[in-house]
Amino acid sequence: MNAPTRRGAGKDPRIVAFRGALESLIESLDATVRIARWESGGEPIPDPLRQSAAQLQNRLGSANRLAAGRFVGAPAVVATSAAIKEAVQALDAAFVAYRKRADGGQREEAVLELDSELGRIKLDAHRWE
């Protein structure tokens, strides 16, 4: 008789979906930063980059809805979901700060801060894998 197969937190379908939402959000925020730094007068912004940035609001909404949920289950699943939730909340706050600074005429500083927060979140990716 074989022992039952155990799934780690990373293979839980809820975590897979939540991680996917976070990764899509990061992709859109990265695209937003890249577009904000794009040299005017140079090459046109590639369509995939533009499309990813255009999906930012939808992806942010999806990630926030998932982050508002409560995960129950194995401690590893709960810990992983909490790490993803923290990342989503940090990125949401960073994007809000970015919009306020950019709208206030401090676009370059806003881009630097958003990019910095994205880098910090990416460094913590091991927490939700």
Please provide a written account of the structure.
This protein is mostly helical. The chain has one domain. Helix content is 71%, strand content 0%. It is built from five helices and no strands. The protein has helices at residues 13-36, 47-54, 56-68, 75-103, 107-123. It is elongated, with a radius of gyration of 17 Å. The protein starts with 12 loop residues before the first helix and ends in a 6-residue tail after the last helix. The model is unreliable at 1-6 (pLDDT under 50).
Compact description:
71% of the residues lie in helices and 0% in strands.
Question: What tags apply to this protein structure?
Answer:
mainly alpha; elongated
Give the total of domains.
1
Shape: elongated
Tell me, rounded to a whole number, the average pLDDT: 89
Rg of Cα set: 17 Å
Ends apart, CA distance between termini: 31 Å
Would you tell me the structural class of the helices and strands?
mainly alpha
String of helices and strands: HHHHH
Which residue ranges are poorly predicted, with pLDDT under 50 across at least 5 consecutive positions? Answer: 1-6
Strand content: under 5%
Determine the fraction of residues in helical runs and give it as a percent range: over 70%
Number of strands: 0
With helices defined by DSSP (H or I, 4 residues minimum), what is the helix count? Answer: 5
